[in-house]
Predict the structure of Succinyldiaminopimelate transaminase.
Amino acid sequence: MNPLLSKLQPYPFEKLRGLFAGVQPDSRYSPISLGIGEPKHPTPAFIQQALADNLGGLASYPSTTGSDALRAAIAAWLERRYDLPAIDPATQVLPVNGSREALFALAQALIDPRPDALVMCPNPFYQIYEGAAYLAGATPYFVNSDPARNFAPDYKSVPEEIWPRVQLLYLCSPGNPTGAVLTLEDWKELFALSDRYGFVIAADECYSEIYFNAVAPLGGLEAAHRLGRTGYPRLIAFSSLSKRSNVPGMRSGFVAGDAEILKKFLLYRTYHGSAMSPAIQAASVAAWNDEQHVEDNRAKYISKFNQVTPLLQEVLDVALPDAGFYLWAKVPKLSDTEFAKRLHAEYNVTVLPGSYLARDAHGANPGQSRIRMALVAEVDECLEAARRIVEFTQKLS
C-alpha cells in the first residue's frame, strides 16, 4: 500500500461518530442535524427534467473535456457573474465531477514531490486540501484564521523562509467553516506572493452564490481581472452546482483560469478517468444557464439566517458570516467536543466541533471552543434546532 495513506487523519464525521458512540439521545426530541454541509432544499424541477430528457447519453462514452455546450454555458456564467472579459471555453474551462474531486486531483497533477514541498492551507479548512497534499508527496502548511479579520487566514504571519517551498496554495472564499470572503487587497497580496515565488493558487469558491446582502462575494478570477492580470497566471478557480442549485448528488462543477495549467490538468484527467456523464452534462447546462432558481435559493438562506442568528446570539458568540451556509460560533463553559456531545445527548441536535475542522498549528487550534452549524434544512427545522441550542446553553449558565 502507498505509505502516504498512513498520514491521512479520520474525516471529521468519523470523529463525530466516535464522539457519539454509546450516547443515546433523549427520545423526547426528534433528531436534527446541523453537522453536515449537505444542501437540503429541493432540486429544481427543470434540472431534474433536463437530466431525465438526456438519459440516452448513457449509451456513449463522454469526453474528458465535456461538451461544447457545457463549457460555453460555464464560460458565459463566469462572464456574467464576475463581469469578466470573454472566457475561452476551449482552453480556460474544464468540467469536473464536483469541486471536491478536482481540488484533490489538482495537487496530484501539479506537485513536484520534493522533500521540502509545501501545500499551504487555511486553518480551519476543508480536509480534502490536507489529504491532497499528503498523497501528492507534499506537506501541508497551515495558516491560522484571524478572528480580527472575520476569520480570514493571516498570510502576513507566514515566515518569509516558508514561501519559497510553497508549490500550491488552497484557499476557500467564502470560507468553510468561517464564511470569510477575501477582499481585493487580500488577493493583491496573494498574487504578489505567487508572482514572487511561483506557486499556484487553487481558489475553492463553491459557496459563492449564498450571500446575505446586495454585494456578491468577490471571486479569484474577478480579482485578477480587476488587478489587470491578463490570462489569470497561476490561478485556478473551482466552483460547483451542489450548493448553488441544490444538486450535490449530480457531482458537477468546473475549474477555470490559467490555460497552460488546465492543459496539463486535462492530460492528467484523461488518464484519471474523470469524464462527466452526458446526462449530467445536459442537466448542468440547464442549471448554469438559469439564475432565477439561484435567487430563490439564496432568499431561503437569507430568511433562515436572519431568523436563526439573532436567536443564537442570545447565548453564543456568533455573527452573520460574509457568505456561505454555516454559522461559526464560540461556545461557553465547555470544550467544543463536550458541547457537541451533550447537545446531542440532551437535545438530539448534531453540530460539528470546530477542532475537528482544524489542526494544532503555531501553538493553537483555531477551531477549539467553536462549533460549525450548517443551516441547510428548511427554516422550521433550523429554528427548532436554534431553540434547543438556546435552552441547552442557558442551562450551562
